[in-house]
Amino acid sequence: xETIILITIAFVAGWKLNDIWMAATFxxxxxxxxxxxxxxxxxxxxxxxxxxxxxxxxxTARTEVEIRVEEVEGCLFAYDTRDLFLAQARDADTxxxxxxxxxxxxxxxxxxxxxxxxxxxxxxxxxxxxx
Length: 131
Fold this sequence. Notes:
Elements: H1 2-33, H2 37-46, H3 53-59, E1 64-72, E2 75-80, E3 85-89, H4 92-102, E4 108-110, H5 117-130
Parallel strand pairs: 1-4
Antiparallel strand pairs: 1-2, 2-3
Helix pairs in contact: 4-5
């Protein structure tokens, strides 16, 4: 009898651990591919899948993304901290606009001095003045 109980407990525990591991693996795959929550929500809406209000509230939380800006032969390139490509443009204004379009609404963008803050700072001030 004890053996049956132990086997049942082991089976249930293994099932739950597998669920946790699979969810973490799936999230990592989506992150590595650059798929955002906003992309998934748009796809759900396109396919007629309704999301609960709790799910919608999670996406309105403010996030912060640190980016790195590089200039190569007169063209600006933006990458996130995982070196995933975000955008490219000839000028900082267009680059910043493209980055903003790509990220979820309410995302705060930070650029450190060593990662090209001087390149993007003037463009950010101009865009802020326009809005």
